[in-house]
Amino acid sequence: MMMMPNEYVFFFLFFSFLILGIEESHSTCTQRFFFTYTHRSKYLIYCINTRKYLFRNIHTYLFVFHWGRGSGKKSKKKKKKKMFLKLFKRDKKEKDEERSGEKASEKKVGNNNHMDKKAPPQEKVTKDDFESLDVLGKGSFAYVVLVRRIGTNEYYAMKVVNKQGLLDHNRYRDVFVERNVLSRTNHPYLLKLYWTFQSEHKLFFVMEYMPGGDLDKYMNNLPSKQVDLFTAKLYAAEILLALLFLHEHSVIYRDLKPENILLTGDGHCVLADFGLSKDFYNPKEGGDASTKDMRANSFVGSPFYVAPDVLKQNEYTNAVDFWSFGILLYRMLCGRTPFNGKSMREVFDNILYSDLRFPSSVQLPSEAKDLISRLLIKDANRRIKGPEIKAHLFWTGINFDEVMERKVKPPKWVPIPSPEQVMAERAKAEGASTSAKNPGQLVNTPAQSSQLNSRQQQLFTGFSCTADNHLNKN
């Protein structure tokens, strides 16, 4: 076999990395290129042609380094080639699982029983089927609008996401995670999703409207910034049931905080915003994963609620949700979070190394202190888990079966008026601001961004769906 001159090998490898590094910066591709060129061999040319799956983790780096040196013996080369093929298949499988949401076909997605044997036809909708009424909230590249379906008296919250913003922040996978989790689950304390669809520049989630706002704003409007003991028990019980349901259905939530807990018109909690969740559900491997197989290592979460397991950047389990649950319970009862600081570095150091203390100004029952203390154990293996949490004495006076059926009412909640009354009050309070008067302008105006090319648009293929939550709507 005629070998290529070193100059040709150099340029071939360099441009292969730049062309194939679709999802990575050119600097990253260049770094990987120099590693490969240093340890090149005739086998590595084959590795480049099979794309970059080989270079995804440190174990593969070591393998390439060892293999590139070669041994000169046929039997060993066969063995190493077999090892390479095994690694390639494994990494390709991981990549395919990552993109399962992106490549999903536009079919109806199942409820908590996942896919029905015979799915009813999907009901397709577009933004033209809805009338925009009011802006409920805005984020960095998304906003939520109160809408009414034209020709009906049905009100929804429509979340509108800018595609370019997702691509700029490498967050386009998040919308598929959120869609997949919400569309296949059905629980009284999880936000209901009805439809998803897209336009050239935007993605749309049509979800259940929560007139009570979020728990963070509700608590901040209270004089003491905290709720009474019974309300804290009730809200904590509702969120705990939602978390346990997610864990049973192969999801680690990973972003529990008051801002992500919405309130219904009659004052119950609903968990929302699943973009940072880790979904282990895989229909090709029997659906739900066992708890022991649910392990992640991404650095995600909110600063004051993130678990030490995540900060250590090691592999972690759904125990991170129980830590955040402990912080949430502390926040509801004490009016603040336990681990604070003047900077994020100080906050993280306190989470990792500081002891838990309760404010002397708040009188808490011993059962509440005990549960919070056991939830905020820094060693995840010793931290209290789901069944133990439900069996704790803190829940005296709370019947989880009744909570599941929403039979227990928040004692101090004032019912929220109808959407029409809410809109009128907001328009009056805001002085008929532009955003309140013209919410449809946000929905219908094209995003201020560069044109997305066909390859970028392909990343959002299969986003549209009709969830069983809509088909089962009362």
Automatic annotation (TrEMBL):
In residue numbers, the region (Disordered) covers: 95-125, 424-455
Q: Which PROSITE patterns match?
A: PROTEIN_KINASE_ATP, PROTEIN_KINASE_DOM, PROTEIN_KINASE_ST
Against Pfam families, the record matches this protein to: Pkinase (PF00069)
Domain of life of the source: Eukaryota
Q: Which InterPro entries match?
A: Kinase-like_dom_sf, Prot_kinase_dom, Protein_kinase_ATP_BS, Ser/Thr_kinase_AS, STKc_AGC
Q: Which residues form the signal peptide?
A: 1-27
Residues annotated for ATP binding in this entry:
K159
In its UniProt record, a GO molecular function of this protein is: ATP binding
Query: In its keyword annotation, does this UniProt entry include Cell membrane?
Result: no
Where does the record place the Protein kinase domain? 130-395
Alphabetically list the UniProt keywords. ATP-binding, Kinase, Nucleotide-binding, Phosphoprotein, Serine/threonine-protein kinase, Signal, Transferase
Q: Where is the composition biased (Polar residues)?
A: 432-447
| Family the UniProt entry places it in | Belongs to the protein kinase superfamily.
Q: What PANTHER family would the database entry show?
A: RIBOSOMAL PROTEIN S6 KINASE
Q: What is this protein called?
A: Serine/threonine protein kinase, putative
Q: What is the lineage of its organism?
A: Eukaryota, Discoba, Euglenozoa, Kinetoplastea, Metakinetoplastina
